[in-house]
Amino acid sequence: MSKAWDLYDALIESIPAEPVVEDCIIGLNWTYVRAGEYAGIAVTFQGSSASGLTDGPYIGRSLRDVAAGVRSWDMLRASVGMAAVNAWFNSPDKMAGLGLAQTAEDAKGGAGESIFDEPLESLLGKKVAVIGHFPYVEKQLSGKCELSILEREPEGDDYLDSACEYLLPEQDFVFITGMTLTNKTLPRLLTLTENAKSILVGPSSPITPLLFRYGVDSIAGFYVTDRNLTRALVAQAAHREIFRGGRRIVYSK
Fold first, then answer.
1. How far is CA 33 from CA 53, 113, 134, 147, 154, in A?
2. How many alpha carbons fall within 13 Å on the CB side of residue 135?
3. Which of 26, 42, 67, 230 has the fewest CB atoms within 10 Å, i.e. is most exposed?
């Protein structure tokens, strides 16, 4: 079996069998999964390379079983799997265990800062690649570094994402959208960025030291602190508003 699956298997096998999925919403922009006190989100991929959502329904199944869907080539099923993975790893109690939040109460209402603001000094004059579009990234980084943006649907001066094979080995810093876990491109991207500092970015990113074993240096993720609000925002096809339901956090090795 391909070693590319090792990262996925490590995440799935870390989830205990006991939690049972009690709620699941596949929204226009986000997918939400809750198992008891654990709730997570991930970007919803609209495309599917398989025959549709053949794996549902999800409610009543173990969180680990649902999380295993992240390995699927059906992108909707993989989106549910990614949200299930994040439900386990991206929770207030796990953040407290990592020293990132004392309690769920401490974390309420904290939107956090942009990952592109935090390391700005270290990026000055460096070669920086960003995989995926992030709001205001050009405004924040343009003129401060040698910036390359790679996108599947490029705009303006973006590079097509296939340029990663040529550009990434030359970079000092690479910001990678967490959506690459869902679409299965992350293992290859981490191989290409082994000489750079790799930062996994966005709500689809699991916040766990497991990722450090596979070449991730820092995780700029999101965890849910208000399950009811997050559920409502997902159901209402919220986009940027989703951050009202939790907190963004940066975790580095």
1. 15, 25, 24, 35, 31
2. 6
3. 26
Please check whether residues 85 and 138 belong to one and the same domain: no
Non-local CB neighbours of 75 within 8 Å, separated by 6+ positions: 45, 46, 47, 48, 49, 182, 183
CA–CA dist 114, 136 (Å, integer): 10
Average pLDDT of every residue of the chain:
88
Structure tokens at 73: 């080539």
Contacts of 99 (CB under 8 A, 6+ apart): none
Is residue 210 within 8 Å of residue 12, measured between CB atoms?
A: no
* CA trace torsion 167, 169, 172, 173 (10° rounding): 70
What 8-state DSSP symbol labels residue 220?
Answer: E
- Report residues of the chain scoring pLDDT below 50: 51, 102-113
Annotate 25-40 with DSSP letters as a single string: EE-SSEEEEEETTEEE
End position of a domain, from candidates 106, 127, 159: 106
Our count of domains for the chain comes to 2
Q: Output the domain CATH number for residue 164.
A: 3.40.50.11590
Question: What gap in Å lies between CA 253 and CA 30, rounded to an integer?
Answer: 28
Confidence (pTM): 0.91
Round to whole Å and give the CA distance between 232 and 227. Answer: 9
Q: What confidence score (pLDDT) does residue 140 get?
A: 81
Kindly state the tokens that stand for 2.
């391909």
